[in-house]
Amino acid sequence: MNEKGIFIIGAGFAGQMIAKEIKQKKIFGKVIAFLDDDKKLIGKSIDDIPVLGPIEHFTSFLHYSHNDEAIIAIPSAPKERIKKIYEFLSKANFSKIRILPSVSQIIDEDAHLIQTREIDPLDILGRTPVTISLKESLKYLRGKRVLITGAGGSIGSELARQLLSGGAQRLYLFGHGENSIYQIDKELRILQQEGIGEKAIIVPIIGELKDRDYMFYIMKQLKCDVVFHCAAYKHVPLMEENPVASIENNVFGTKNLLDACLENNVQKFVLISTDKAVEPVSVYGVSKMLSEKLVLQASKIAKAQKSDKSYMFVRFGNVIGSRGSILPLFTQQLKTGGPLTVTDPEVKRFFMTIPEACSLVLKTGGVGKNGISYLLDMGEPIKILDIAEQIIRISGFEPYKDIDIQFIGMRKGERMEEPLWTEQEDPQPTKYNKILQLKSDKENPPESYEPLINKLYPICFKTKDYEDLYRNRDKLIEILVDSVPSLKSFYQGAK
């Protein structure tokens, strides 16, 4: 059997580190050459490996064996450049094309072969992410005990990966899904074994936010310093079919966690929120709006305690490639030959990569202040139809000819565009790139939502003298529609 040949695209520090690792371990194959556009490097050798280039010239005439692979190791390259390189490589006879993602810990001169993964269309869509130095941003977490709820999800798991670089003493991975927590726990341990990050003690925890007694118990045991609250039911149409579960988990789960954090002296609390919380038109949106209000209320309690606690939320729109989102769905539909399904030709969404969003969340956690609300700068909204067409073309097909696109109509709880803020919030730039600050909600202070939350409680939890309300979804919808003007307008308009 022929030894696998590997061509590394990019002869910078990342490519050199990966080449050195391949050479040392001797089990992944042999690096044949670097491909690079830097005239100062072309024609030279790095550790006996020739540097060839420019990239587009050599990918067009080099003869590869069927067993050869390419690794794109240019973490700082803009999306447009990665797209071009991918197009060149796709025309060659590589058995596999992998990429070293442009995450911040790699830019901090820490690149490993295990961080590479097979490239897919999501890597070359959207804007070029902002670069943040994680080692600088995460100084506030050094020696701390950090809890991530929903640690098995798309955002939670990426936060956990990036937190490996933060020097935390303990990293608690909290979730109610056994398989997802098992997977991220296993992945982080492998990353540590391969020399990525620092030696935080990783502790997987299976638990339910909805269980108030348990949350008070577990937070007392963990003695956390910092909490990143990512856990939430988040699929809009599914939550419209299961509204009680949405409120029970997202609202009361958040309340239980916040109350337990305040009682057990958690110093920093960061809620991951969403644009769907802005003038919500779905039950899920209402649940996240109420979660934001609960955090603001908790920040007032923290202030009254005259402590150094910082309780805040960070709001942003869609993230590219999150589990269950439209982009992985498109990829799956492509594999079966289409069609790709789009709700409406004019529907738009804001998009950001998962690593970029997580880096900004971690940065905000360090610089954010108690009771202040933050919004990530998402750039301009993108038509979902344009993304569908791009994915088809990137995959080597022609839209409507090779792969069709079907319009299936808007579903309950969806709208054409998702606003990122209300008029009253008026986001203002901070001194930190891509992080905006929202004005506090003076017209509707957090306390005004307490009566609403109290009304919802007996619907989500069996309560003496209110047994007839338990799991009564019609009553829950009635209460929400009467209490949230944007939901009322949308529901009435949808009839």
Taken as a percent bin, the fraction of beta residues is 15-25%
CATH names the topology of the largest domain as Rossmann fold
CATH superfamily of the largest domain: NAD(P)-binding Rossmann-like Domain
Average pLDDT metric: 89
- Total DSSP helices: 17
How many distinct domains? 3
How many strands? 22
> Distance N terminus to C terminus?
66 Å
Largest sheet: 9 strands, mixed
Classified by CATH, the class of the largest domain is: Alpha Beta
- Give me the Rg, rounded: 24 Å
Task: Summarize the amount of helix as a percent range.
Answer: 25-40%
Overall geometry = globular
CATH architecture field of the largest domain: 3-Layer(aba) Sandwich
The spatial strand order of the largest sheet comes to: 10-9-8-11-12-13-18-22-21
Question: Describe it for me?
Answer:
The chain has 495 residues and is an alpha/beta fold. The chain has three domains: 5-119, NAD(P)-binding Rossmann-like Domain (Rossmann fold, 3-Layer(aba) Sandwich); 134-438, Rossmann fold (3-Layer(aba) Sandwich), CATH 3.40.50; 449-494, no CATH class. It contains 17 helices and 22 strands. It has helices at residues 13-25, 55-61, 79-90, 104-107, 134-137, 154-163, 178-193, 212-222, 236-241, 243-263, 283-304, 326-335, 354-367, 384-394, 450-460, 473-483, 485-494, and strands at 5-9, 30-35, 45-46, 49-52, 69-72, 96-99, 117-118, 145-149, 170-175, 201-206, 226-229, 268-274, 310-316, 318-320, 340-342, 348-349, 351-353, 373-376, 382-383, 405-407, 428-429, 435-438. The strands form five sheets. A nine-stranded mixed beta sheet has the order 10-9-8-11-12-13-18-22-21, sandwiched between helices. Strands 3-4-2-1-5-6-7 form a seven-stranded mixed beta sheet, with helices on both faces. Helix 6 (154-163) links the parallel strand 8 and strand 9 (170-175). Helix 12 (326-335) runs parallel beside helix 14. The longest helix is centred in the middle third of the chain and has 22 residues, at 283-304. It is globular and about 80 Å long. The relative contact order is 0.09.
